[in-house]
């Protein structure tokens, strides 16, 4: 078990980290956070016995029919420590123009951890070994083909697939920014708003067009260049879209594509985020570290479906 020296926890800076938000990150929305009290443990996965039809007629003097027992699987989780640190030198403080160096440092570290989390979730859902079903679009089926493609019909067809698999209608369509840029200009979608909308369509219009509770534009970017080379930015979610059922909040016996198990280590009131600050005298600097312990897991793969290469 890791020891991050709880005596160095910094409550004000921890509040900065917990409160930090980057609107381009959606991983924690796709995989809602389940707070856990232990670094490792197990969670229950229920079967589909409730969908079985039984003969319910009972004749006189006969016993009522007993239903089949629930089938249960319990899967393990382990919350690794995802952490980064930076140092503020005495020289930087002396040259500071009044900027809050601690706050900026904590926000930068938090953003880096959140970016890593976003990439991990994307790889888990859309990587080559992902158990989540996928459909690869090409040619005239890609949503950037404004003559032949029909994005709404394509999504509706997959809603039926997901609904049949998990008995819940998908409520979320999450698209990368390139897909969003293509959809909001698609003639078939624009045609649905031609009498009510002036100007280019917004995310709320697409939410209505696709009839989902959540329409998320996943715009996070990352540097694909090798360290030391000039930056080369690309979208984390590439040219993909994800249709899924995402529960409003984690609940027992609730179907979900996935969950984030977050260990409330050290101080449960800190929401699983720990920030510590300490002096490094031989470097003439103050060190700041941000820690989050989590494990991201796909719980019900059939609760989602990926559109790969949704646009050209």
Write the topology of this structure.
Layout: H1 11-19, H2 27-30, E1 33-36, E2 40-46, E3 72-78, E4 80-89, H3 90-95, H4 101-126, E5 134-136, H5 151-166, E6 172-176, H6 177-183, H7 187-190, H8 203-209, E7 214-218, E8 221-223, E9 233-235, E10 241-244, E11 258-263, E12 273-280, E13 285-298, E14 304-308
Parallel strand pairs: 1-11, 5-14, 6-7
Antiparallel strand pairs: 2-3, 4-13, 6-10, 8-9, 10-14, 11-13, 12-13
What does this structure look like?
The relative contact order is 0.25. The mean pLDDT is 91. By secondary structure, the chain is α+β, with helices and mostly antiparallel strands. It has a single domain, classed as phage-related protein like domain (phage-related protein like fold, Alpha-Beta Complex). The protein is built from 8 helices and 14 strands. The two termini are 46 Å apart. Helix 1 crosses helix 4. The protein is flat and about 85 Å long. The chain is 25% helix and 27% strand.
Intertermini distance: 46 Å
The CATH topology label is phage-related protein like fold
Q: Would you state the CATH class? A: Alpha Beta
Main beta sheet:
5 strands, mixed
Overall mean pLDDT score? 91
At the fourth level of CATH, the homologous superfamily is phage-related protein like domain
Q: Helix/strand/pairing class, anyone?
A: alpha+beta
Give the count of structural domains. 1
> What Rg do the Cα atoms give?
24 Å
Helix count? 8
Task: Estimate the global geometry from the Cα principal axes.
Answer: flat
- Helix share of residues? 25-40%
Proportion in β-strands: 25-35%
SSE series:
HHEEEEHHEHEHHHEEEEEEEE
